[in-house]
Amino acid sequence: MGISIPDLALSHILSTYPRVTNVLDRQDIILECDMANGGRVEQAYKVFMDMKWKHFEPDEYTYTIMIRMCGNSGKADETLKFFQEMLSTGCAPNLIAYTTMIQALARNGMLDKLIFVFSKMVENDCRPNEFT
Questions:
Q1: How far apart are CA 49 and CA 51, in angstroms?
Q2: Number of domains in the chain
Q3: Among residues 29, 56, 83, which one ends one of the domains?
Q4: How many other β-carbons are positioned within 10 Å of the β-carbon of residue 76?
Q5: Which residues have C-beta within 8 Å of that of residue 12, sequence separation ≥ 6?
Q6: pTM confidence score
Q7: What separation in angstroms does the CA of 101 have from each of 9, 55, 82, 98?
Q8: Which of 15-19, 25-29, 89-93, 114-118 has the least mean pLDDT?
Q9: Do 16 and 68 belong together in one domain?
């Protein structure tokens, strides 16, 4: 009897969004976790928008997932939009969010923006690590 990744993600979602059981059922949440692992950006974007429509504010983890998915799919402009939205809502990126953004920009050859994001990371006292 093991614990699956969707079960761990479900546990995180339920602890992060205590009212989520009033909005989504267990199957919806597991589907969302599978999308994040399967790289289905369009479906994940729909879930992201649905979450916001239902008044659940995305946190740095949610934005990081969207940034990673878009970056891995070659959607650099979408990656930038999610990062800018994250900043504009007052959601402070953590080390993982910055690193994910920098990796997405590098993967998509956007070195000028990568240097800008890296400088903002350092300016905001977020120390890069070996993955950044």
A1: 5
A2: 2
A3: 56
A4: 17
A5: 61
A6: 0.70
A7: 22, 25, 10, 5
A8: 25-29
A9: no
